[in-house]
């Protein structure tokens, strides 16, 4: 399928949908570096194109941001996602949530934990009950301030959100939260002795 897309691009290099399809195909085929390059070409080509919606740009930026994080190019991912969130400020909540959560991951991987927490707050504003964001917040708070009341409260929120859950993923996150809270209690008990 890459061959067919390449053949069309050779015939008409300005065929924007083909560039987008090629970027997507390369992403899914595990051709990370080529996908990063192709997403970059597409995003540059559609920067001021009124035919391309902000939602389509946002989706492509998130795909590129994810690839950059996987390539451990965290600073590039942070710059890309920061700019996107500013430039595409009118995005729907779901797009802002995805962009912000990816920014949180990139910042966390780069060691910028405060920035990661701020990005995660934006994601949670869009989707306050999203369990993944609550767990991510608890992990960040624990890394920033081990044994803090804020980390304890975040893990306790995971417990509350998973009360009565039957989904395996939610149950695993609950077990994770219980383990973190038990570890915090153990360390508090050790400090008292």
Descriptors for this entry?
mainly alpha; 193 residues; 10 helices
From the N-terminal CA to the C-terminal CA, the straight-line distance is 66 Å
> Helix/strand/pairing class, anyone?
mainly alpha
User: What is the percentage of strand-forming residues?
Assistant: under 5%
Mean model confidence by pLDDT: 85
Number of strands: 0
Helix content: over 70%
Shape: elongated
How would you describe what is shown here?
With 193 residues, the protein is an all-alpha fold. The chain is built from 10 helices and no strands. It has helices spanning 2-11, 16-28, 32-45, 54-70, 74-87, 93-109, 113-126, 131-144, 149-161, 168-192. The longest helix has 25 residues, at 168-192. The protein is elongated and about 60 Å long. It starts with a helix and ends with a helix. The model has no long low-confidence stretch (mean pLDDT 85).
Tell me the layout of helices and strands.
Blueprint: H1 2-11, H2 16-28, H3 32-45, H4 54-70, H5 74-87, H6 93-109, H7 113-126, H8 131-144, H9 149-161, H10 168-192
Helix pairs in contact: 1-2, 2-3, 3-4, 4-5, 4-6, 5-6, 6-7, 7-8, 8-9, 9-10
